[in-house]
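Milestone 3.1: sequence recovery, worked example.
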């Protein structure tokens, strides 16, 4: 981005910064084009509003841009849509320089704000939510509760007179281009989708809730927290998020249960096939079965997303869960787990820890785990395979709504 403030509306300025050389963000995200930490400054006849700050390492550039537009004693309000350090890093220093400024945050942000601003016990702040609004001079800011996008404390706001939506991380891209606006920069579609997949996809229900609020607004420009500012056809980004977040209804109303397994001597595979037969006894369930060693991550993700029930089978190897299963479990951070059921099974030779380890992991990921894990020593007998069929049948019934007490 240019190193000077940029006017984006009559009285609204971009005062964010670019992190051009970053290539990995938050450990898991690749950023071939770097990224930006977007922040904004609004001038009114009665004072200035700052929307978000930047990562601490880039604070000087942020303050230089801010000082080019106003003095610190003109700042009346600071709106913080998200307190992750890439946006709140310069906030402690800003509150030192503008101690009179009142901060607006969501209710969930209170403990975090106190923790990051420990040098100022008397800092003035107010919590806000949907339908709350403030005015300063001729400008009105309406607040929107948009939690979990992607932290519990996230919120959005809307500048009424200029029709600007401040969306927080929503509609962000890790994509730096000094031409700033979406109609001028290069093709960032890949970065927009990649960002959605890694940051917003696990929260699809919350995305749809936010979009319901956004769609009530007349939006002329989306001022997000990363990447290009969207002034040309901003509605297209709302439509894309909606398409990606809508529940998949392609399975004719049936619930999908997917079995993932790995096997050493075909014993766990036999269990998987028997459980599959049990699932298949329920007409309202579509059962899938996959050998995990031949699935790549993208396929795992799309299967996990469409499945209401997920069953994982593995033998124990050297006292541990085999790597393909850990790979599957690590994919779970990228999907929404709300409302999903899980279960585990496996054949073992000696100690059989793998099944319990997988079960514990599913529970910690907040899957509903209704049945005790199914463990069989070495080769399943006919009786044990019948038990696997019953296990599959009961799991399918639970996915279909049968009430049971969850295991602890
Ligand atoms: Fe861009 Fe969630 O911080």
């Amino acid at each position: 981005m240019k190193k000077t403030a940029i006017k984006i509306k009559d009285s609204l300025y971009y005062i964010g910064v670019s992190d051009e050389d970053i290539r990995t963000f938050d450990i898991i995200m690749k950023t071939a084009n770097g990224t930006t930490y977007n922040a904004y400054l609004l001038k009114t006849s009665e004072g200035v509003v700052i929307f978000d700050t930047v990562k601490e390492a880039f604070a000087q550039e942020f303050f230089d841009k801010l000082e080019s537009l106003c003095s610190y004693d003109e700042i009346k309000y600071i709106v913080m849509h998200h307190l992750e350090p890439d946006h709140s890093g310069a906030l402690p220093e800003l509150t030192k320089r503008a101690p009179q400024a009142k901060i607006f945050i969501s209710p969930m942000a209170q403990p975090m704000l106190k923790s990051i601003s420990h040098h100022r016990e008397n800092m003035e702040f107010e919590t806000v939510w949907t339908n709350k609004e403030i005015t300063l001079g001729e400008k009105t800011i309406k607040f929107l509760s948009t939690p979990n996008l992607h932290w519990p404390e996230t919120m959005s706001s809307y500048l009424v007179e200029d029709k600007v939506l401040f969306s927080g991380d929503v509609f962000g891209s890790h994509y730096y281009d000094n031409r700033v606006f979406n109609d001028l920069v290069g093709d960032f579609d890949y970065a927009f989708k990649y960002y959605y997949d890694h940051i917003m996809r696990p929260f699809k229900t919350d995305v749809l809730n936010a979009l319901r609020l956004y769609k009530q607004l007349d939006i002329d420009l989306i001022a997000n927290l990363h990447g290009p500012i969207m002034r040309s056809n901003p509605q297209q980004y709302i439509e894309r998020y909606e398409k990606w977040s809508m529940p998949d209804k392609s399975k004719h109303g049936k619930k999908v249960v997917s079995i993932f397994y790995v096997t050493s001597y075909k014993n766990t595979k036999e269990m998987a096939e028997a459980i599959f037969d049990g699932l298949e006894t329920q007409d309202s369930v579509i059962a899938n079965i996959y050998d995990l060693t031949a699935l790549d991550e993208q396929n795992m993700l799309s299967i996990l997303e469409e499945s209401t029930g997920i069953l994982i089978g593995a033998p124990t190897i050297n006292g541990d869960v085999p790597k393909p299963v850990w790979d599957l479990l690590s994919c779970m951070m990228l999907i929404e787990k709300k409302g999903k059921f899980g279960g585990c099974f496996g054949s073992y030779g000696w100690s059989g820890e793998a099944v319990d380890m997988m079960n514990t992991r599913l529970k910690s990921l907040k899957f509903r785990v209704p049945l005790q894990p199914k463990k069989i020593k070495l080769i399943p007998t006919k009786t044990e395979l019948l038990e696997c069929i019953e296990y599959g049948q009961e799991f399918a019934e639970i996915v279909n709504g049968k009430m049971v007490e969850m295991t602890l």
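The chain is about 30% helix and 25% strand. The chain has two domains: 6-245, 255-399.
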